[in-house]
Specification:
Elements lengths: L2 H14 L2 H7 L1 H14 L1 H8 L3 E2 H8 L3 H13 L3 E6 L2 E6 L1 H6 L9 H15 L2 H7 L4 H5 L6 H5 L3 H23 L9 E5 L5 H9 L4 E6 L1 H10 L8 E4 L12 E5 L7 H14 L5 E6 L10 H13 L7 H11 L2 E6 L6 E6 L1
Parallel strand pairs: 4-5, 4-7, 5-6, 7-8
Antiparallel strand pairs: 1-3, 2-3, 8-10, 9-10
Length: about 350
């Protein structure tokens, strides 16, 4: 069925009764249900218990009201994150595989830190979305009492806040890394530099996928310090190098990975960085851009459209289409540009010098 016909039928259905609109109106409530369950420790408790628990048991273990916990657990069942069985008129709740894998802290694929950051930092910023749209700038000043011009000074305003942001970035690569590093065959590039590579989450997956290549994370000294302190792994196969990719000297490399960096900045700063990378890049070397990319027809993906609004409320950047990235990369001197859609959150563009 053609998208236009489907849209017309959906519109007619919505005119009869606005199911979809009502679902969207309540979207913030769904987010807060998940955020609150994570904060309270619901998923950790259910994973550890290895059995179904009543609302009474959960509330006692987590020092919460039984009435409030029962309502929260029911809502989690309603959105298919928990299961429930009724035994002799009493409800017993258990985790789904999805909850155990992604929402419990103990899981190696836990998204807990991403959820915590969304709840504590992103959610308050979105309270000022209308202001951001009116003013065309981020809302750090209203929300966090920090200058709207100092993006990373705001993100890194204390070691505690820096760690929270780095945990968010690390959690992102828990689910997206493999698709990103295998979107292209990168084995010809023997020296890889992850520019602004933060915790090394993406770099370690690169090193695993391409054991014949060396991988270096290049980031600010304070980021490298926190990364080594909180995110180091035994027998690490990657290296860290300190520096500022705007003002400092870049490490030599055959391939520069620029993942979730370009979307932070206005076009002039993007071009400044891309020109610098192209100048430093060896002949026949390359650049790998990793970003959430908009469709050329502006009809999605909806997640990327929401990401772009998030860049408005929090940074000075935006999400872009592949053709917009092609233009930036071509202007900087890169050629033979190719795009790969992963079908997940993040897509890739490979360019050659």
């Amino acid at each position: 069925m053609k998208p236009l016909i489907m849209a017309e039928q959906l519109s007619q259905s919505e005119l009869d009764y606005p199911f979809k609109l009502l679902e969207y109106f309540n979207g913030f409530r769904v987010s807060k249900v998940i955020f609150s369950a994570c904060e309270l420790g619901v998923f950790d408790l259910l994973l550890q218990s290895q059995k179904s628990l009543s609302a009474e048991s959960v509330s006692q273990e987590l020092q919460a009201s039984q009435d409030g916990m029962e309502r929260l657990l029911d809502a989690l069942v309603g959105i298919d994150i928990l299961d429930v069985e009724i035994t002799q008129g009493k409800a017993f709740y258990s985790s789904t595989d999805v909850a155990n894998l992604y929402l419990a802290k103990a899981s190696p694929k836990s998204l807990y830190n991403m959820i915590a950051y969304q709840s504590q930092t992103i959610y308050p910023l979105w309270n000022h979305l209308a202001d951001a749209v009116r003013e065309g700038k981020n809302q750090n000043e209203k929300t966090l009492n920090m200058s709207s011009d100092q993006i990373f000074e705001t993100l890194y305003r204390s070691e505690e806040e820096m760690l929270k942001f780095m945990q968010l970035m690390h959690a992102t690569w828990v689910v997206d890394t493999h698709d990103v590093v295998t979107a292209f065959d990168l084995s010809p590039f023997k020296t890889m530099v992850d520019v602004g590579g933060c915790t090394g989450g993406l770099a370690r997956e690169l090193a695993k996928a391409y054991p014949g290549s060396t991988v270096t994370v290049f980031d600010l000294p304070k980021v490298v310090e926190v990364a080594k302190k909180h995110f180091s792994v035994p027998d690490d196969t990657i290296a860290f190098q300190e520096g500022d990719f705007f003002t400092g000297e870049l490490p030599e490399g055959d391939l520069y990975i620029v993942a979730r960096i370009i979307h932070d900045w206005k076009e002039e700063k993007c071009l400044q960085l891309l020109h610098k990378l192209c100048e430093q890049c060896k002949p026949d070397g390359g650049i790998l851009i990793v970003e959430a990319m908009l469709n050329e027809n502006r009809r999605g993906p909806v997640m990327t459209q929401l990401f772009s609004l998030n860049m408005l409320v929090q940074t000075e950047g935006k999400e872009r289409t592949p053709s917009e990235y092609f233009r930036l990369l071509s202007s900087a001197g890169f050629k033979d540009l190719q795009v790969r859609r992963t079908g997940k959150s993040y897509d890739c563009i490979l360019g050659i010098k």
